[in-house]
Design goal:
By secondary structure, this protein is of the alpha/beta class. It is built from four helices and ten strands; from the N terminus they run E-E-E-H-E-H-E-H-E-E-H-E-E-E.
Length: 168
């Protein structure tokens, strides 16, 4: 599928000309790019000012790889599931991008979290960032964490994503 200037697809499909290809073979990890929450995160990511980014709960690496293709650097990815880290590393190599695979989030300009609402709310206060793109929850839900404020919200098919800023 094409999302803005990105094309997300499996290795056996050919990307259209002019789109930045993000080739994802998720294997045993979550994330093909087709889910509305991923699409919303990719839309918000394309509108963000490139800088350093950390993908928390990277799954297949689709958001990390897209960030690298969009000019974000350095790009860090982490997940509690070792299989997800393996799949992210393989997908990054297949896309010719460098990701820093980390065990804890480093300081960054932006975090991307496409995971369950309760996990988003628990992790936000611990992140060394001042902006975050969050999703993984329904349109009726909104993340609540001290000091974090919504700057922009997008919805698709009953799902939501938010661009948040930390302002104590």
């Amino acid at each position: 599928m094409t999302i803005g200037r990105l094309w997300i697809g499996p290795p056996w499909e050919k990307p259209p000309s002019g789109a930045a290809p993000v080739v994802i073979d998720p294997g045993r990890a979550f994330g093909t790019g087709a889910h509305p929450t991923t699409r919303l995160c990719l839309e918000l990511l394309q509108d963000a000012e490139p800088g350093s980014v950390v993908d928390v709960g990277c799954g297949s690496g689709v958001l990390s790889i897209a960030a690298a293709k969009l000019g974000f650097a350095p790009v860090s990815a982490l997940d509690l599931d070792p299989v997800a880290i393996e799949v992210t590393a393989a997908n990054a190599a297949a896309n010719g991008v460098h990701l820093e695979l980390v065990n804890e989030p480093p300081p960054a300009d932006l975090a991307v979290l496409n995971i369950a609402l309760d996990v988003v709310e628990g992790i936000l206060p611990t992140l060394p960032v001042t902006r975050a793109i969050t999703s993984g929850y329904l349109e009726r839900d909104s993340p609540v964490a001290a000091g974090w404020h919504s700057v922009e919200r997008r919805v698709l098919d009953g799902w939501a994503a938010d661009l948040l800023e930390f302002r104590p």
